Amino acid sequence: MDAEKGRQLWEAARKSDMDGIRRLLQEGAPVNWTGDWGGWTPLHLAARNENGTPEMVEALVRAGAEVHAKTNDGETPLHSEPRRTLRLLCGRG
User: Fold this and answer.
1) Which 8-state DSSP code applies to residue 37?
2) For the chain, what percent of residues have pLDDT higher than 70?
3) pTM across the whole model
4) Is 91 helix (H, G, I), strand (E, B) or coil?
5) 53 vs 4, 14, 58, 68, CA distance in Å?
6) pLDDT at position 8, please?
7) What is the residue-wise DSSP string for 44-58?
8) What CATH number does domain 3-92 carry, 2.60.120.200, 1.10.3720.10, 1.25.40.20, 3.30.1330.60?
């Protein structure tokens, strides 16, 4: 697993950088990377971020993001999901 690419994907999701997310997924970045960030995956971040879009969530899910992944506090992406993409995640889980 390429930890640097995982970190970059995590940051792209945190910043709602769709171009970065696409590029890193094409480069094979580990889609469920959490590093030392409390178990938060890029999908958790894309789902939580006010600037996140359903397109970001969909790209991560299609790349294999675990929709039931839990943070260290037991939260899944659904716990932090704004209503606008909740339906997309529910359809995947």
Assistant:
1) S
2) 84
3) 0.83
4) helix
5) 24, 12, 9, 19
6) 97
7) HHHHH-TT--HHHHH
8) 1.25.40.20
